[in-house]
């Protein structure tokens, strides 16, 4: 197998976006009949690499080789023609169309008259699912499918296209234990049949179970490409992290005070069930779990964005009215949302206006907003959070991701909340700013603010939290004190592999 | 890896013929609602005719029904074209101006050149409409102007050209060839010719949307534009084609208008775009694209025309009729939204049940 040239290879590929170097001299070789893991922390450049292979991005430097010949993919269609199929973490299906139509869109079988041969198309869909060993209803609209089933539709699509290279971008991130096992059976079968698989994951046991080689990236740079057989899990973690965990997460000791936030048997039908926990003053509590476990949904319900069907929320002992963000804000709650571009900021407005947005009453003079008060407030917080900017009147959109996140934080901190909920506070921001955000959260806790942190990054959870709550499929399945929280204990609970 | 035919053996399935499980409850609900969308309009029509017929049996007479068909056929045809655009998550507000331009242009040419063959005029009007549609399509598909804004602009532009061309002139029935005017009043087997033309358009376009790859791609684009790009669909080309087809149908509708009403000036069909969009929405076509059929849209047009006629027969104050029509449209859409919410809740519950 090794004497044959790789099916698909990258040679010293670099890609940058503006000033951010997302990939630096990365090389990678995918062989037929092999699963190859791509490992690295969030922000290491895995997604950029996947998008480069799928033809979405064009590399600034370096070459892509297909069967040893240099190629240039012109858009995703070009990559597809070359036999490269990508299964994204969030599948890209047409919600209104049936499973069958989703598989064959753009390439429907036709009769001689040019009309779509629906019976033939449906039969081929049934056959594909038969081969995958998963009985999916081909007539069902894609809208109702779980993420796991949607991925299988994507895989069926790739099969129907005769893909030779299957790229799976964190396919297991949102799956339950059973669903992961089912996916692995499918992938192993594809591998046996000579398909080259690129498997992106940061779950070590999955990489060791499925893959023959692993390529590690760190901060956009190529670290190493090894045979799995030559590595121990510890070696791989060292390659991924490349630094000591403790140094990155300066956790200040804080003595938990009285209870600031109580969530009691909170249920939103079909989303999360019977969630109870407390957060004390001065405490950082992490809410861990897989994507789709219902963590952000709990946060949204607490903050009054979504309704809950049963249970209650108390802030400092006082019951919170449901479905009212303004009541939540008045009670001293703040929510820094997951998606800062969509939910956290008004990208076209200036830094100062964004910071003032959540506390307009504080900068009001009579019926009007005082520009001077707005500016003073913004200047204060910009200084405190060490925001890097040229002018406060610049649009937030021009800032880097990390600095945008600081603006969102400033907006909420300016209200002096007693409880702050941060959803994925460091997603997509650089390592330096990450450490600053962590320091800030730690300081806030030390000042007596209760912090509830939702995070998918295990090192962050383990480094920052006084306690770790773990959600799995809408339920709170574990509460782990700092001393006992390890990557294994949190992951086991998050994937539902032990009923803790 | 091999192709689908020579294919990969199954993971753990020796049996190629894996049984398809019966659709769970949520799916049956979904398909039922999808069908109910058209059935609901038929039911509403039934109610309307039943009630009005009881109050005033003349409403159910052949002449009255024929009038309703005739009155709805032009809007129905425009609704078919509009559906093509709306399923791609776009909208065309300029149709009424295209109808006006085509009606007046066609009439003027026939009035000024008595010998010109009628089929040539019809073809010319369709072409003129297609040209207008192409302009809309280029603005939206290539220049990336939001459809709402682009077609609002062309709504005024096309109408302005119409005004300038007409210069206050009006073409009367006497100026047009009798053969042409008879198209507007002719009947085949007792059915008005115009209604048959509209019916043919509905059936042909409906068939194309369902059975041709290009038709399915329009739905795909409206359902998820990003996924459409990833699926290798030529999104721009399809969107332009949808606008061109809609323009061509508007051009044809313009000729029909001239034939039916005989008297044509530059203000023809002003404001009709809203009737058309109302018909499309009432007909169950999702305004944000991805779902709906031309059959529903055409039925929506018939329903709206029937409501107007029924209100007149029921002697509802003419001034109140518009408000009542509007209220009925809102009722139809609220009903639709409630159904959609119930489906979403059912799917949410089912997914949760499956996961646990």
Would you give an account of this structure?
The complex is a heterodimer of chains A (about 500) and B (about 350). By secondary structure, chain A is an alpha/beta fold. Chain A has three domains: about 10-95 and about 145-240, P-loop containing nucleotide triphosphate hydrolases (Rossmann fold, 3-Layer(aba) Sandwich); about 245-330 and about 415-495, P-loop containing nucleotide triphosphate hydrolases (Rossmann fold); about 345-410, no CATH class. Chain A is about 35% helix and about 25% strand. Chain A has a six-stranded mixed sheet, sandwiched between helices. Chain A is globular. Chain A starts with 7 loop residues before the first strand and ends in a 6-residue tail after the last helix. The mean pLDDT of chain A is about 85. Chain B has about 350 residues and is mainly alpha-helical. Chain B has one domain (about 40-315, about 320-340). Chain B is about 75% helix and about 0% strand. Chain B has 13 helices and two strands. Chain B has helices at about 25-55, 60-85, 95-110, 120-140, 145-165, 180-185, 195-210, 215-225, 225-230, 235-260, 270-280, 295-315, 320-355, and strands at about 185-190, 190. Chain B has a two-stranded antiparallel ribbon with strand order 1-2. Chain B is globular, with a radius of gyration of 23 Å. At the A-B interface, helix 2, helix 4 and helix 6 of A face helix 1, helix 8, helix 9 and helix 13 of B. Chain B: Keywords: Cell inner membrane, Cell membrane, Membrane, Transmembrane, Transmembrane helix, Transport.
């Amino acid at each position: 197998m090794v004497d044959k040239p790789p099916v698909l290879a990258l040679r010293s590929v670099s890609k940058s976006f503006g000033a951010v170097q997302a990939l630096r001299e990365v090389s990678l070789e995918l062989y037929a009949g092999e699963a190859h893991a791509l490992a690295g922390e969030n922000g290491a450049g895995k997604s950029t690499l996947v998008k480069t292979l799928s033809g979405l991005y064009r590399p600034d430097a370096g070459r892509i080789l297909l069967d040893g010949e240099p190629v240039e993919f012109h858009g995703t269609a070009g990559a597809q023609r070359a036999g490269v199929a990508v299964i994204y973490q969030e599948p890209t299906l047409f919600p209104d169309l049936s499973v069958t139509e989703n598989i064959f869109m753009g390439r429907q079988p036709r009769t001689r008259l040019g009309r779509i041969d629906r019976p033939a198309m449906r039969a081929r869909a049934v056959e594909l699912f038969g081969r995958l060993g998963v009985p999916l209803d081909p007539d069902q609209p894609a809208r109702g499918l779980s993420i796991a089933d949607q991925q299988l539709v994507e895989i069926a699509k790739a099969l129907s296209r005769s893909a030779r290279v299957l790229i799976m971008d964190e396919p297991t991130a949102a799956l339950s234990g059973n669903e992961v096992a089912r996916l692995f059976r499918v992938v192993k079968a594809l591998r046996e049949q000579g398909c080259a698989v690129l498997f992106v994951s940061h779950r070590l046991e999955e990489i060791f179970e499925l893959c023959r080689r692993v390529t590690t990236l760190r901060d956009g740079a190529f670290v190493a490409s090894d045979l799995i057989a030559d590595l121990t899990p510890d070696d791989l973690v060292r390659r991924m992290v490349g630094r000591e965990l403790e140094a990155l997460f300066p956790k200040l000791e804080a003595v938990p005070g009285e209870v600031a936030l109580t969530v009691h048997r909170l249920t939103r039908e079909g989303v999360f069930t019977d969630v109870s926990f407390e957060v004390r003053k001065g405490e950082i509590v992490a809410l861990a779990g897989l994507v789709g476990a219902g963590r952000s949904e709990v946060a949204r319900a607490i903050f009054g964005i979504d309704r809950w069907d049963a249970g209650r929320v108390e802030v400092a002992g006082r019951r919170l009215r449901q479905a009212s963000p303004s009541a939540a804000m008045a009670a001293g709650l703040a929510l820094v949302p997951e998606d800062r571009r969509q939910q956290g900021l008004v990208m076209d407005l200036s830094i100062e206006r964004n910071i003032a947005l959540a506390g307009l009453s504080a900068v009001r003079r009579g019926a009007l907003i005082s520009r001077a008060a707005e500016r003073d407030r913004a200047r204060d917080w910009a200084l405190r959070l060490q925001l890097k900017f040229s002018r406060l009147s610049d649009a937030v959109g021009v800032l880097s991701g990390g600095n945008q996140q600081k603006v969102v934080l400033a907006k909420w901190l300016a209200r002096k909340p007693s409880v702050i909920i941060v959803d994925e506070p460091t997603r997509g921001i650089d390592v330096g700013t990450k450490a600053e955000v962590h320091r800030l959260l730690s300081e806030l806790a030390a000042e007596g603010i209760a912090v509830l942190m939702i995070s998918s990054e295990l090192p962050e959870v383990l480094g920052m939290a006084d306690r770790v709550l773990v959600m799995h499929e809408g339920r709170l399945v574990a509460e782990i004190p700092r001393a006992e929280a390890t990557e294994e204990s949190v992951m086991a609970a998050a994937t539902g592999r032990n009923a803790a | 890896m091999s192709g689908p035919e020579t294919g990969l053996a199954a993971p753990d399935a020796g049996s190629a013929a894996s049984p398809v499980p019966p659709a769970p409850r949520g799916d049956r609900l979904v398909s039922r609602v999808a069908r109910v969308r058209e059935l609901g309009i038929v039911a509403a029509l039934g109610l309307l005719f039943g009630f009005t017929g009881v109050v005033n049996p003349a409403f159910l007479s052949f002449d009255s029904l024929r009038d309703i068909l005739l009155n709805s056929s032009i809007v129905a045809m425009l609704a078919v074209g509009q559906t093509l655009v709306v399923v791609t998550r776009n909208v065309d507000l300029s149709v009424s101006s295209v109808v006006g331009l085509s009606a007046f242009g066609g009439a003027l040419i026939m009035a000024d050149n008595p010998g010109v063959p009628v089929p040539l005029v019809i073809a010319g009007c369709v072409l003129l409409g297609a040209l207008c549609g192409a302009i809309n399509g280029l603005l939206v598909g290539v220049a990336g102007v939001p459809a709402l804004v682009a077609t609002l602009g062309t709504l005024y532009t096309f109408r302005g050209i119409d005004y300038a061309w007409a210069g206050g002139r009006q073409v009367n029935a006497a100026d047009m060839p009798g053969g042409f005017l008879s198209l507007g009043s002719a009947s085949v087997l007792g059915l008005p010719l115009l209604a048959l033309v509209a019916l043919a358009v509905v059936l042909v376009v409906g068939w194309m949307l369902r059975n041709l790859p290009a038709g399915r791609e329009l739905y795909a684009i409206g359902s998820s534009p990003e996924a459409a790009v990833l699926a290798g669909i030529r999104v721009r080309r399809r969107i332009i084609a949808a606008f061109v087809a809609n323009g061509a149908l508007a051009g044809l509708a313009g000729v029909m208008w001239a034939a039916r009403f005989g008297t044509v000036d530059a203000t023809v069909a002003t404001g009709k775009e809203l009737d058309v969009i109302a018909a499309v929405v009432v007909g169950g076509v999702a305004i944000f694209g991805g779902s709906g059929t031309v059959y529903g849209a055409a039925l929506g047009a018939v329903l709206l025309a029937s409501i107007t006629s029924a209100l007149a027969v029921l002697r509802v104050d003419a001034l109140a009729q518009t408000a009542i029509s509007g209220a009925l449209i809102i009722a139809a859409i609220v009903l639709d939204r409630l159904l959609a919410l119930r489906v979403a809740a059912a799917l949410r519950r089912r997914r949760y049940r499956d996961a646990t």
